[in-house]
């Protein structure tokens, strides 16, 4: 910790996925960290905050300042055998920086590789759960020996992270219950923050009959089921449109989903936009009647919090931590993850009833203010830092 007169400030290192370029946010964790970092920096208790952003591509700069307290360091990460070797090469880089900065607290944003790095370089480690990576790996694993081995390695990594961390922050009751018995240190709950610019979109205006999906195009998000439900909705609302926003990491799978849309006769009703920047995402949320998500597994999806903040209703599958965000009939609708017919019926209900959508959206915005406002999340996070640092 640093001392300036009577003020004692925290020196924090965060190991996190963070935007490689300002405003270009990829995925939910980047959205969370790019919101949390400035909210933390605004707190008087924070003196310096250094983000270590490991990457395997190209970063425009090696370091970037974001105000007087925040520095982002972009580090070329270990590209192979990270899980199997305990991220040995990344840990070596991080240890050098820790020796230089001598932080009071190291905060990792996930219980996977970043948590593994953090818990090897500092005793004062906090890890935030952004997904049950071991369960997600198990869901994605097929019958091959290679994938089964990877699952066992990931599970072992998660277990040691949860065992070593001084504090584990769950973002939902769902993930907290799933980790029962695995956490050795303090286990608390703090929801993810949502950026102020999404709250600024509320109240929602009247919209065209247009729905928005935003997320990684992957089997876990169940885009195939979503398209099947949407095809049923289009039969009753011929003017309906669905915008599919988000990265497409597997070109083969993306092609399969596009072919499925064509087979369902949706080419005139659907748009696949791929990755978009934060400004475009806000535009799409503002233009949508509702945000839709038909996932098979989720913890606390960022896009649903953003939709609620913006005053948009949500239609989602009833899985994971989503029922903690969406209350049936209050700020949206929840459907069993395999009930395509029910999901389609809820789509039709909101596509045909603008006033209902606006009413659900207003109540969702009020709930988002209670749960996801950045200053409140930053305050609780700093309180945790102070306990871990012994201040």
The radius of gyration over CA amounts to 21 Å
Number of helices: 14
Helix content: 40-55%
SSE string? EEHEEEHEHEHHEHEHEHEHEHEHEEHHH
Structural category: alpha/beta
Number of self-contained structural domains = 2
CATH homologous superfamily of the largest domain, by name?
Glycogen Phosphorylase B
Major sheet attributes = 9 strands, mixed
Spatial separation of the terminal alpha carbons: 9 Å
Would you count the extended β strands for me? 15
Q: Give the low-confidence spans.
A: none
The CATH architecture of the largest domain can be named as: 3-Layer(aba) Sandwich
- Quickly name the level 1 CATH class of the largest domain: Alpha Beta
Principal-axes shape call? globular
Query: Strand content of the residues, in percent?
Result: 15-25%
**Looking at CATH, which topology of the largest domain would you report?**
Rossmann fold
The overall pLDDT average reads 93
Features:
391 residues; alpha/beta; Rossmann fold; 2 domains; nine-stranded mixed β-sheet; six-stranded parallel β-sheet; 14 helices; 15 strands; 43% helix; globular
Structural description of this entry:
With 391 residues, this protein is α/β, with parallel strands linked by helices. The chain folds into two domains: 2-193 and 373-389, Glycogen Phosphorylase B (Rossmann fold); 196-371, Glycogen Phosphorylase B (Rossmann fold, 3-Layer(aba) Sandwich). 43% of the residues lie in helices and 19% in strands. The chain has helices at 27-41, 88-101, 113-121, 133-140, 145-164, 173-178, 196-199, 223-236, 251-263, 278-287, 302-310, 340-351, 354-371, 374-389, and strands at residues 2-4, 7-15, 46-55, 63-65, 70-76, 105-108, 125-128, 167-170, 186-189, 210-214, 241-245, 270-274, 290-293, 314-317, 332-335. The strands form two sheets. Strands 1, 2, 3, 4, 5, 6, 7, 8 and 9 form a nine-stranded mixed sheet that branches. It has a six-stranded parallel sheet with strand order 12-11-10-13-14-15, with helices on both faces. The longest helix is centred in the middle third of the chain and has 20 residues, at 145-164. It is globular and about 65 Å long.
């Amino acid at each position: 910790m640093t001392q300036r007169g009577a003020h004692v400030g925290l020196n924090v290192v965060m190991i996190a996925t963070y935007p490689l370029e300002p405003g270009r946010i990829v995925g939910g964790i980047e959205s969370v960290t790019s919101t949390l970092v400035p909210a933390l920096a605004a707190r008087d208790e924070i003196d310096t905050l250094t983000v270590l952003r490991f990457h395997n591509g190209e970063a425009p700069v090696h370091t970037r300042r974001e105000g007087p307290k925040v520095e982002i360091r972009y580090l070329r990460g270990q590209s192979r055998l990270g899980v199997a070797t305990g991220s040995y090469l990344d840990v070596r880089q991080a240890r050098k920086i820790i020796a230089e900065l001598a932080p009071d607290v190291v905060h990792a944003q996930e219980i996977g590789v970043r948590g593994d790095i953090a818990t090897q370089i500092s005793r004062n480690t906090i890890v935030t759960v952004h997904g049950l990576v071991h369960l997600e790996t198990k869901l994605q694993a097929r019958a091959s020996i290679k994938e089964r081995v990877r699952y066992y390695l990931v599970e072992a990594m998660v277990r040691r992270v949860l065992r070593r961390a001084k504090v584990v922050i769950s973002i939902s009751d769902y993930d907290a219950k799933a980790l029962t018995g695995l956490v050795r240190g303090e286990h608390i709950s703090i929801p993810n923050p949502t950026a102020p610019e999404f709250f600024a979109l509320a109240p929602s205006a009247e919209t065209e009959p247009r729905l928005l999906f935003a997320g990684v195009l992957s089997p876990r998000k169940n885009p195939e089921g979503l398209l099947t439900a949407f095809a049923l909705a289009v039969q009753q609302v011929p003017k309906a449109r669905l915008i599919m926003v988000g990265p497409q990491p597997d070109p083969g799978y993306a092609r399969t989903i596009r072919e499925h849309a064509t087979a369902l006769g949706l080419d005139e009703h659907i748009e696949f936009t791929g990755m978009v920047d934060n400004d475009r995402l806000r535009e799409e949320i503002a233009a949508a009647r509702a945000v839709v998500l038909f996932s098979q597994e989720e913890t606390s999806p960022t896009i649903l919090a953003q939709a609620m903040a913006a005053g948009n209703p949500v239609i989602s599958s009833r899985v994971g931590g989503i029922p903690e965000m969406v209350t049936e009939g209050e700020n949206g609708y929840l459907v069993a993850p395999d009930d395509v017919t029910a999901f389609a019926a809820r789509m039709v209900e909101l596509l045909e009833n603008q006033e209902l959508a606006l009413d659900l959206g207003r109540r969702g915005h009020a709930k988002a203010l209670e749960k996801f406002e950045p200053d409140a999340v930053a305050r609780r996070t700093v309180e945790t830092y102070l306990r871990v640092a012994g201040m």
